[in-house]
Amino acid sequence: MRIGLIGTGRIGTFHSTALQRHPEVHALIVADADVGRAAGLAARIGAASAAAVDDVFTGSGRSGPVDAVVITAATSAHAELIGKAARAGLPVFCEKPIALDLPGTLAALGEVEAAGTVLQLGFQRRFDAGYAAAREAVRSGRLGRLHTVRAMTSDPAPPPAAYLPLSGGLYRDCLVHDFDMVRWVTGREVTEVYATGSDAGPAMFREADDVDTAAAVLTLDDGALVTATATRCNGAGYDVRMELAGEDDQIAVGFDDRTPLSSAEPSGPPPPDKPWPGFLERFAPAYEAELAAFVDVVRGERTNPCDGREALQALRIAEACELSRRERRSVRVAEIAGG
């Protein structure tokens, strides 16, 4: 299989290395708006070649045609690149989000559906062993009736200031992963949200009209309650967890010997020696697994594990939370277009 990878930043570099190792990927063509940067990455990992972005879709240039495309470019380019792949008849894996707003997301999905091509979105937590075990515990009935879910994502340090205006905000950029997990693990839909946020941290968040810390209460369609929190300022380390409590049992995802959490109890466990420093380290096996799944999808060996419509539903929850924060009211997800 020949795969074109577009975007040579941190996640693009990580994905290119994983694809280069995959036994079914016989050629990896690396592309970027900066062809020199693409050539540099191709040389470092031993990829087949580097190419201009448009050459990936047309099959022109020395690289030749590809069988599928992996998009790890800047978020602002995702929708356009997804459209180009659809028009070229190419299956595509794209890091989330599809676009930074609903109209852009719906337009890109429309192109994919009109072309009848494949779009798999990069919600890597669906491939994490802990989240998969939690899903099985819920779906098997082991926990009994689920009544409370607590989800959280805490980054160890803020991103660069220049990133914030392009990120879509804390709900769309960060908590959207938790929203996807709430749906995927529980099998329920979110019907209503109430969200708030704080910009009391670094000034760059206020300047970008964003928040550095956020919290939301979500109501599921069976009446279960979810709290979802996120922050960009968790100096102890990268902390991603989900707790699910039922009438019979409860389970926690992300609680291990690297969780950046110290017990205040005299007999509690000691603080971790090596807390998780970031998302690539924490979810490295999941990232590799989602790309392996995409290769299987392209080969016709499995169904799409996270299509564009699944990603849209997580984005609608994020949009509802942002609306709730700004208008200081409860918002029903049905108010958000695209359902």
UniProtKB/TrEMBL annotation:
Transmembrane domains' residue ranges: none
Gene3D superfamilies registered for this protein in UniProt: Dihydrodipicolinate Reductase, domain 2 (3.30.360.10), NAD(P)-binding Rossmann-like Domain (3.40.50.720)
One Pfam family of this chain: GFO_IDH_MocA_C3
Signal peptide: none
UniProt xrefs under SUPFAM superfamilies: Glyceraldehyde-3-phosphate dehydrogenase-like, C-terminal domain (SSF55347), NAD(P)-binding Rossmann-fold domains (SSF51735)
Keyword entries, A-Z: Oxidoreductase
Name under which the protein is recorded: Gfo/Idh/MocA family oxidoreductase
Listed InterPro entries: Gfo/Idh/MocA-like_OxRdtase_N, GFO_IDH_MocA-like_dom, NAD(P)-bd_dom_sf
Superkingdom, taxonomy of origin: Bacteria
Annotated stretches, region: Disordered: 257-278
Ranges where the Gfo/Idh/MocA-like oxidoreductase N-terminal domain occurs: 1-122
Keyword rRNA-binding annotated: no
Similarity section: Belongs to the Gfo/Idh/MocA family.
Domain GFO/IDH/MocA-like oxidoreductase positions: 131-249
